[in-house]
Design brief:
Blueprint: H1 9-25, E1 31-36, E2 41-46, H2 54-68, H3 73-80, E3 99-104, E4 107-115, H4 119-131
InterPro entries: GlcG_carb_metab_protein (IPR052517), PduO/GlcC-like (IPR005624), PduO/GlcC-like_sf (IPR038084)
Pfam family, one: HbpS-like
Protein name: Heme-binding protein
Length: 135
Amino acid sequence: MKTKHVLTADDVKKILAAAEAEALANKWAVSIAVVDDGGHLLGLLRLDGAPAISAHIAPSKAHTAALGRRESKVYEDVVNNGRTSFLSVPTIHGMLEGGVPVVVEGETIAAVGVSGVKSNEDAQIARAGIAALGI
């Protein structure tokens, strides 16, 4: 039997706090979502001034990164490189940069999704949140 790493509630709070700090340091109004490895929402923070739609997009990006076990940008690149039929893939809706998996010992245990600024900046915020775990 295999032992599985999971995020604790304190881990989710650390991720959200570190991601929030990164966003605030850059004066970016975003929504930040943390999901487990099945894409189920563990935490969501919508900063003051963040667009309402960002609270829907951030969890979708995180969901995509968790289920795909890779950054959501991979899927955006697939579509942008001409494979538009990929848009019909079931259950994956956040195919935009800004979803980053949380990987421990080679296993995806969760993901962070951010929405509200440029996609590369969303990813920067997500990585800053994950870095707070020290993994």
